[in-house]
Every structure is written in structure tokens, then in C-alpha cells.
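Hi L.,

As promised, NSS family neurotransmitter:Na+ symporter:
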Amino acid sequence: MKQAREQWTSKIGFILAAAGSAVGLGAVWRLPYVAGVNGGGAFFLIFLLFTLLLGSSLLLAEFIIGRKTQKDPISAFKELAPNSSWYMIGVLGVVSCCLILSFYAVVGGWIVTYLFRSIFGSLTGRSSGEYSELFASIISNPWEVGAAHLVFIIITILVVQKGIQKGIERASTIMMPLLFIIFLLLVVRAVTLDGAAEGISFFLSPDFSQVTGETVLFALGQAFFSLSLGVSIMITYSSYLSKQDSLIHSAGSVVGLSILIAFLAGLAIFPGVFAFGLQPDEGPSLIFTVLPAVFSEIAFGGLFLSLFLMLLLFATLTSAFSLLEIVVTTAAKNNKQRRKKAAWIAGLAVFLLGIPSNLSFGVLADWDVFGDTFFNQIDFLVSNILLPLGALLISIFVPLKMKKPELKHELLTGTSLHTRYFEVWYFLIKYVTPAAIVIAMLDLLGFL
């Protein structure tokens, strides 16, 4: 007997879970350092524009596929385009999520070990140079990062195995409000630091003289990355939606929360960086080498550092839930008895897949993979090839293989918005979004 597909218990539960997937390292870790090396406020303004126009249009496209079919990504594409190869978009999404989680969980493990050290007071009281040495020492220790990596994966498995309602939704409705509260505490402390005004100005006062073609393309990539687009995550999450829920209202809430978190991340990080004379263009190590130095110089710095790392762990876990969920729902095929087994098999398989990435800065540091570490090559493959490729294929599929009246019905169900809104969205998803993705991919791969 076919089991009824599980659904979110409430609209807010879905929004918080989807926003949790979108938040994560993309907003808290990646956006501040990408903004730091691309002009600050000008980058954020362009990122905001791309998120509102192109990111939201692609998000709605994924919502339409998921809510209409109410199936896992592979089955969804098979239903909408039977007897064709379009289902490979779903396969690409599942494979991409496995690869993303394999190195994402490594960074999650770094956060776990930093949080553990912070709670026991061994992170504060060092110079900025010592934090760089500490970070290098930690990520090169196979036993410490290996154990932390496994802990992060097990937490993710334990939540996902419980299903949508009792697992992901329940965890997200606890973690996301806590994340906002911690963020607000950090922002209040950051903007009241002596010298914080320069950091606030850097982040909120656009200097368009710093804008280059690369800045624009990085902002476009960040808009897609920060909304978890292109890997069928949002197809999976929206497949648990009721047929009566408004996709437009849900997408607006997810985009709004994602932008808010990105905004708070900038306000929490840049004032402290400038207040202590540090550089905003430190790159990916900003979180692990610069911020501990900032917190060590302020009153109750150890407490605020622990709060920040807890926030970062919550954000990273909510994204990890969505990455593992797409694999589990595809394997379990809506069978509750198979979900637990699928969660453990998929989670441990991803852990094994992530071991080379975990060892890339220690035991395997000399293992050259096409001129770089295994970790960096997996990151490049997913971020610059698989993710934008998936986004491009979805933006082509929706207007090509789904009938326009059908799309209009799905998009406007549950809203009182005028037909003109649909026409604007249809133009964006059919012409503007795929063209922008092609240009970004060609540039990132060095063809422009």
C-alpha cells in the first residue's frame, strides 16, 4: 500500500527550513569574505539586485516542480518529461549534494572543534598571527578534524532520519530563531565597538569605483549559492508543500530571510575587522583566523566567540540537513521504514567521500590534484560547474517542458497577484536567468 507523502506541519516550518538551507556557510562564511575582496557595499548592492530578480525567479521554478509533482527530484523530472533524459537533472542534483556535503561537513567539523575549544577557553588571548598558526595546526591534525567531521555528520543523520516533521522541521524551528537572536546580540556588540563606523561604512556605503566585471559575476554566483539553487534542494523541500500553499509568498519569505541574514553577517563581521585594524579581504580564513583575534580584544570576548561559533554551527547544520535530505528522499522513495536505513547509509557514505577533503591540509597536503588540493578541487567542481549547470538546466527545462497555462496556475495559486506578475517571472526564467548563468559560467571557466 502506497504511503501518503509527509508534509510540513505549517507554512512557517517550511519557510524556516528552506531559509535554513539557504542560510548556512553561504551567507555567514562565504558572503563576508567575498564582499571583503570585491568592494564591500557595492558588491552587496549588486548581490541584492541579483537575488531579488534572478535568484527568486529560479527559486520559484524549483518550487513549481517540487509542489506540482510532490516527488523526489529524479521522479519529478521523469513525471514532467517521461521517456526522456531530463531526469538526469535530478541525478545531477543528488550527486552534487553528495559532493557538497562531503566537503561542507569538513568545514562543519572545523566549527565543531573551534566551538569545543572556545567553550573550554583555549581560543582567546592569542595574537592574530597565532590564530593563523592555530588554524593551520588544527586542520592538519587528522585525528582532531576526523573526529569533529564524524560528529557533524552524525548530528546531521540523527535529524534527517526522523523525517520532515519530527526531524528537519522541528530542528529548524528551534535553530533558526536562536540563530537570529545570537546574530542580533553579535551585531549590537559589533556596531558599538570603537572604530566600528569605518566597517559599517565599508559594508553599507557603495563605492562603485571598486566594481569590475568580476565583481558583478561573483555577485551573481553568490545570489544562486546563498539560496541553495541548482542542486534540486528546493525541489525536494517544496515537494512536501500542500497544494494550497502560495509559492510566491513562501519564496518571498525565504529570499527575505536569506538577505536579512547576509545583511546581519556583514554588520556582525566588518565593524570588528575595521575596529581592530585588520583587513576585510582575508579570504576564506576570515572566520577562523581574523574573528577570533577580534573577539579576544573585547570585553567578554570568549562568550561572544562561543556565541558566534554556535550560530555558525546552527547555520551549517540547517544547510547540511537539506543536502542529506535530497539523497535520503531519493533512496527511501517515501517509505518511512527505509528512511532511517537510507539516512545512515547515505550519511556514512558521504563521510567516507569527505575523508580526502578532510586530509587535504595534513596527511594529503602534498597530493596534487590538477594543481590544487582535493578539497579545493571538489569545491571548484561543485561551485563553478555543477551548481550553475544545474541552475541553467532547470531554467531551460521549466519554460521548455512545462506548459505556460500550467505554470501560471501553479505560480498564482493561493495569491491575488495580477497576471502581469506571472509574465514578468516567465520572461526572467525563460530569457534573463539562463543568459546570466551562461555568461557567469563562461567567465568563471576562463572563456571570457
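The mean pLDDT is 84.

Thanks again for sending the construct details.

K.
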